[in-house]
Amino acid sequence: MKDRPVNEGTVVLGIETSCDETAAACVMGGSDVLSSVVSSQVDLHAQYGGVVPEIASRAHLELLTPVVARSLVEAGIDDARVDAVAATVGPGLIGALLVGVSAAKALALVWDVPFVAVNHMEAHLYAAFLEDPHLELPLVVLLVSGGHTMLVSMEGHGRYRLLGQSLDDAAGEAFDKVARFLGLGYPGGPAIDRAAMDGDPTAIAFPRAMLDDGLDFSFSGLKTAVVNHVRAHPDVATADVAASFQQAVVDVLVAKARRAAREAGARALALGGGVAANSVLRESFLDACAVDGLHGFLPNRTMCTDNAAMIAAVGWYRLRDHGPTPLTQGADPNLRLPLV
Ligand code: KG4
Ligand code: ZN
After folding, report:
1. What's the predicted TM-score (pTM) here?
2. Ligand 2 centre and the CA of 17: distance in Å?
3. Which is it for strands 268-272 and 139-144: parallel, antiparallel or unpaired?
4. Distance between CA atoms of 113 and 10, rounded to whole angstroms?
5. Residues with Cβ within 6 A of ligand 1?
6. pLDDT digits (tens, 9 = 90+) for 206-258
């Protein structure tokens, strides 16, 4: 294998296929995004109201080669300039993960460069670093995706402390389920975000579960409260339900994030994960940071949802600090965030 030093000029090709986005990106030095290509399968899954794992795997298989090729073209480089190939090995859908992991290992072998295994959750934490590599540590990240809701204190590269997490549904899952119930379609988060713009967030007083109680979250009761309210008031305006539901989620997320920053002694607070694209969450997060004197960091929306630039970024740090991953490494659908 080519044994090149890992430095600011090291180019990592990242590959992401853990769910329903097929993505490839070229990132130099851990933060300089040369290209980031995301091919969404949303239209393929929309008719089923959610991601169908078998359809996702087959689509990744078809899309990955052209997506990787485009990421090289858009970066203006050829494969000889790629110093390492990083891929998401988990958590995610096993069939979907296997497509990206196998492709990354094959490319690494053929190009004679290191392969680097990346944890998808860790990659979401790095979205903030992609845009500001000089963020102060400890950094508390509110990671809100379709599968996870976590408050993590990032104390160093690869050093994470879990401060709180959802005890039941993830925030994104709650958005998706409520959107489906309201007939707003899939994916639910953006649909509720849009519908809520015409609604009154104070119209319905939905519960703020565990608001004053520790740093863990619970969203399943809120989802049930929405269902019960709509059944009891069939004429209620959908926009008001969407806005009131969204406000309840945002209030809890923001309250716990600022408490977590206080308890961890952090000076900076960042958002990550797909739900971090939510417009009301973004606004109220920044307002809270300003009040608390925290450096609030909001990654660009395209870096919040699944992408491969965040995979390549983590790949660079892991390669620098831990070296290449053996090609015997497989995919792990239940991979956990490595904690200290
Ligand atoms: O991080 P992500 O792209 O994939 C996972 O790793 O899960 O997150 C997807 C989740 C979905 O639940 C989606 O509904 C939610 O992020 N999401 C949003 C918004 N955009 C995406 N939730 C609320 N508001 C949005 N604008
Ligand atoms: Zn994700």
Report:
1. 0.92
2. 10
3. parallel
4. 11
5. 19, 145-147, 172, 175-176, 187-190, 193, 273-275, 277-278, 305-306
6. 999 998 889 999 999 999 999 999 999 999 999 999 999 999 999 999 999 99
